[in-house]
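Please check this:
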Amino acid sequence: MELYVEVLRVALAVSFFWSGSAKLGSPGAARRAMDEVPFVRKGTRLATYSLATFEVAAAVLIASPLVPALGYIATLLLATGIVVVSTWVIVTRRNISCGCFGSRQSKPLGWKNLFFGLGIVFASLFLLFGHGWGWSSSGTGDELARLVVMATAALVGTMARHADLISRPWQNFNLRGV
């Protein structure tokens, strides 16, 4: 089980370190992406640097053997934000650039980001509650770890590849009145 936990920790740490570093390296692209989100319009410069710094700090906390739980909480908060903003973009049918990993990766937010965020939520919850609270000492801990890792990988990988197929049935469905 420790191998699965380490794979999740490294994947989350690398992902958030890369994302935060890219935002700090090209703040213009990240700021332009945040300018399009109505609830962040005022203070986008501060929001861009704060988000990037928070992502890098989360990556460092996850990688740290002293306080990884704080990193898991930070990634859970960040992933929840990804899910909320991606859902809002899908429901309102906005075309907002992601700016997640710098200017080269500025594709519009959508289903891929939603499933990516959900995968990070699942991984963060497992690392925070599953591994950190003693499930690893029981016999079911290994099965649970494998299940979470495989389900997260399957969800993120499969749904990200087929996001256009998933969105087709919903293209003519109006969610604004819901």
Observations:
- Residues 2-170 form one domain.
- The mean pLDDT is 71.
- The chain has one domain: 2-170.
- The CA atoms of residues 121 and 158 lie 17 Å apart.
